[in-house]
Amino acid sequence: MITQKKFFIIVILSALVYVGYFAWSATTHSSNLSLENKKAKINISANNLLNNYNTNEDQANQLYSGKIIQITGTIKDITFLNDRTTIILNTQSKDFGVICDLNKNQENNIKNLYKNQNIIVKGVCKGYLKDVILLNCTIEQETNE
Q1: pTM
Q2: 48 burial via Cβ count (<10 Å: 0-12, 13-18, 19+)
Q3: Distance of alpha carbon 110 from its chain centroid, rounded?
Q4: CA-to-CA distance for 89 and 50, rounded, in angstroms?
Q5: What is the dihedral of CA 129, 25, 33, 131, to 10 degrees?
Q6: What pLDDT, in 10s, does the model give residues 84-102?
Q7: What pairs with residue 97 in β-bridges?
Q8: Measured CA angle at 88 (ends 97, 77), to 5 deg
Q9: Alpha helix (H) residue ranges in the chain
């Protein structure tokens, strides 16, 4: 009996390590893929996206999570932490917004960006943690209106 329990535990732990490695690998490697030539499946404003997650997170995950979406919004902040560039888009919520983690190939595109600028960003929606998170983002359009 003890041998069967040990074997079962080893199999379960091995499976968890295997799944964890592939999940980490997919996330790490997909952040380097360019979305510039990929078409967004959904176009939505930053405010509507956050409202949809606040209203019904499960339904919003079904609609957006894992999909390439195009977001229209106003820049609240631009950060350069941990060798990553992130644009945070404003929403009607004072505390929460849409976090757009930019692809490395976008470094030249951020030079002329500024707070309160209207912008269109495309990225892969990863879900919601009070802010909506988009990864591997590209800047689709900058406007000065």
Answers
A1: 0.73
A2: middle
A3: 18
A4: 10
A5: 0
A6: 899 999 999 888 999 999 9
A7: none
A8: 120
A9: 2-30, 46-55, 57-64
